[in-house]
Specification:
Pathway: Amino-acid degradation; L-kynurenine degradation; L-alanine and anthranilate from L-kynurenine: step 1/1; Cofactor biosynthesis; NAD(+) biosynthesis; quinolinate from L-kynurenine: step 2/3. The protein is an alpha/beta fold. The protein has 2 domains: about 130 residues, Aspartate Aminotransferase, domain 1 (Alpha-Beta Complex); about 270 residues, Type I PLP-dependent aspartate aminotransferase-like (Major domain) (Aspartate Aminotransferase, domain 2, 3-Layer(aba) Sandwich), CATH 3.40.640. Helices cover about 35% and strands about 15% of the residues. It has 12 helices and 17 strands. The chain has a 7-stranded mixed sheet, with helices on both faces. Strands 13-14-17-16 form a 4-stranded antiparallel sheet, covered by helices on one side. A two-stranded antiparallel sheet has the order 1-5. The longest helix is centred in the last third of the chain and has 26 residues. The protein is globular. The model has no long low-confidence stretch (mean pLDDT about 95). Pyridoxal-5'-phosphate binds next to helix 5 and helix 6. The site of pyridoxal-5'-phosphate has 12 residues, from helix 5 and helix 6.
Length: about 425
């Protein structure tokens, strides 16, 4: 498509967008009486309008039924987590038995590593990406120490200092080089900083080939990229619900465990009653019998109120469909790239996009280096109703989310960005 940096073009694209009505299903922060230009859905997704009604319904059912609500409420709390299974499975390309919504992301990474990081003899190392999200680094390092290992057993693949990216080839080379030492490959599918999407299928295949376990942190990938966890033979994965999936601040996370690991009592696991066989759960037998699905990793009964907004959002995902969202997403990100390049020309500021240009290697995000005046321009954007994200020392991250952002958002951002650069960059 021939992109143009003007309002008519953006409005025309919006008029032709078959997902355009989903925007009206969300609540936007307001700036001077108008919707702000919200580009931080990769950090905290917006509130679906029906979340409030669904929360009221749960409050009502609690008031009406008390404890009986576990079975009598309109969405019985006893099996509340089950309402998430189907929509989550289709978002991450899994069988329904392979996913469950529970806990927070870092908690889940730990629970899954208890089961799937089992260092033995020489095969004891973890591979991760350099400059991984801090929480992941803490989780990985503390898992190593927990097993009596040291940080020397963490292989961090460092990004290229100029491109700031880690090529898939680099990952493959690292796996080959340390083939008989790697116990676990644990990368972020989508890098939170650069917006790079790894070739998960290829890396998973190589990881399995060298005899390692392969797990993925999909914090920035779930609800953003088309993923096929089951077909790619991924062992496990976890993601947060509050980024692209709009579950609200601190909202519930999701996990994937491949079906080949289900029903096995010899897998080490931290156990809780919600992972125990449903038939005998309330007979309270002494011996734990895992549910033969990903639910075996659950510990506690579902935190209903923390899960409601996710339900509201997943309904919209089911209606929109990941494929259509992805198609729109490619166009939005490409348009944002075009606009940034236009602004680079019109202002002469050496803006540098660090996110890959290849649409298959990125999702709904662009990270742009704004040399010198980055912070000032970022503040200018915020003052003028563009909510984006700042990363030291000079990166502005923007996520045009296909569920609720549109072309006009990007056009309007472009104009404000251009003004800001002209004002501060001399
Ligand atoms: C957002 C994010 C987290 C956040 O972890 P929580 O446990 O949900 O607080 C962790 N890892 C990555 C890669 C993230 O992007």
């Amino acid at each position: 498509m021939e992109y143009q940096f003007n309002a008519e073009f953006a409005l025309k694209c919006d008029a032709e967008d078959e997902l355009k009505n989903f925007r009206a299903q969300f609540l936007f922060p307001q700036h001077k009486g108008e919707n702000a230009i919200y580009f931080t859905g990769n950090s905290l997704g917006l509130q679906a309008k029906n979340a409030r009604e669904y929360i009221s319904e749960e409050l009502d059912d609690w008031a009406t039924f008390g404890v009986e609500g576990h079975t009598e409420s309109r969405r019985p709390w006893l099996k509340y987590h089950e309402f998430f299974t189907k929509p989550l499975a289709s978002i991450v390309g899994a069988k329904p038995s392979e996913v469950v919504a529970m806990n927070g992301l870092t908690t889940n990474l730990h629970l899954l590593m208890v089961s799937f990081f089992r260092p033995e003899g020489k095969r004891k190392k973890i591979v991760c990406e350099g400059k991984a999200f801090p929480s992941d680094q803490y989780a990985l390092r503390s898992q190593l120490r927990f097993h009596g290992l040291t940080e020397d057993d963490l292989i961090e693949i460092q990004p290229d200092p100029v491109a700031e990216l880690i090529t898939d080839d680099r990952v493959i080379e690292t796996l080959e080089k340390h083939a008989d030492e790697i116990a676990l490959v644990m990368l972020g599918g989508m890098n939170y900083y650069t917006g790079q999407f790894f070739d998960m299928e290829r890396i998973t295949r190589k990881g399995k080939e060298i005899g390692a376990v392969v797990g993925w942190d999909l914090a920035h990938a779930a609800g953003n990229m088309p993923i096929k966890l089951h077909d790619w033979d991924v062992d496990f994965a976890a993601w947060c619900g509050y980024k692209y999936l709009n579950s609200g601040p601190g909202g519930v996370s999701g996990i994937f465990v491949h079906e080949k690991h289900h029903g096995q009592t010899e897998i080490p696991r931290f156990e809780g009653w919600w992972g125990h066989d449903k038939e005998t759960r309330f007979k309270m037998p002494e011996t734990f019998k895992p549910i033969p699905t990903a639910e075996a990793w659950q510990l506690s009964n579902a935190p209903v109120f923390a899960m409601v907004p996710l339900l509201a959002s997943l309904e919209l995902f089911e209606q929109a469909g990941m494929q259509r969202l992805r198609e729109k997403s490619k166009k939005l990100t490409a348009y944002l790239q075009f606009v940034v390049e236009q602004v680079r020309e019109s202002t002469g500021v050496e803006l540098k996009i660090i996110t890959p240009k290849d649409p298959e290697r990125r999702g709904a995000q662009l990270s742009v280096i704004v040399p010198g005046v980055g912070r000032k321009v970022f503040d200018y954007l915020m003052e003028n109703g563009v909510i984006s994200d700042w990363r030291e020392p000079d990166v502005i991250r923007m996520a045009p989310v296909p569920m609720y952002n549109n072309f006009e958002d990007i056009f309007r951002f472009g104009k404000i960005f251009e003004q800001g650069l002209k004002k501060f960059a001399k």
